[in-house]
């Protein structure tokens, strides 16, 4: 159902990505001191990804994984959707733990696990593709960058050149 909507309205993934890039660091910075809210949003995001990737469909598939290495483009609806799928999770996890790179590595590994489950649990009717892992990992990289920006915005003491903060200049 979701894929049908995305095919009919391919601009949705691009708009979601732009909104995420513009608002992600601001919302992330706002969430830094609000740990309980961040945990709830992270849990909801992980649940949504689990539903979108592991709920069974009515297709019969053979065991295996399609090996493709296409980069997401604005016209590639499925690849853009996969890129957008993991970015919020890594943004939220990076803000929560204050370790965006660890969140990136964990999310990339989780995406590989999802693809392996899709490849071998054929009863799910889900197809495995290396493109999905690549797009999810690129989205995770984006999320890590957004989390780093959010953490930087939330902690003015690390901002360069602010009064009382290290400016990086000798003798200041």
TrEMBL record:
This is VanZ family protein. It comes from the Bacteria. It comes from Nocardioides panacis. Keywords: Membrane, Transmembrane, Transmembrane helix. The chain crosses the membrane at residues 12-33, 40-59, 79-96, 101-121. Residues 69-148 form the VanZ-like domain.
């Amino acid at each position: 159902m979701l894929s049908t909507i995305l095919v009919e309205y391919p601009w949705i993934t691009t708009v979601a990505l732009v909104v995420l890039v513009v608002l992600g660091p601001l919302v992330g910075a706002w969430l830094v001191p609000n740990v309980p809210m961040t945990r709830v949003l992270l849990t909801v995001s992980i649940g949504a990804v689990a539903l979108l990737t592991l709920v069974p469909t009515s297709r019969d598939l053979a065991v295996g994984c399609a090996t493709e290495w296409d980069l997401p483009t604005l016209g590639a609806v499925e690849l853009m959707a996969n890129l957008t799928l993991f970015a919020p999770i890594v943004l939220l996890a990076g803000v929560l733990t204050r370790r965006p790179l660890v969140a990136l590595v964990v999310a990339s590994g989780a995406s590989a696990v999802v693809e392996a489950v899709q490849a071998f649990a054929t009863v799910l009717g889900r197809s495995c593709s290396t493109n999905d892992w690549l797009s999810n990992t690129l989205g995770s990289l984006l999320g890590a960058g957004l989390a780093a920006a959010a953490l930087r915005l939330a902690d003015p003491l690390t901002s360069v050149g602010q009064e009382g903060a290290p400016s990086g200049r000798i003798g200041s």
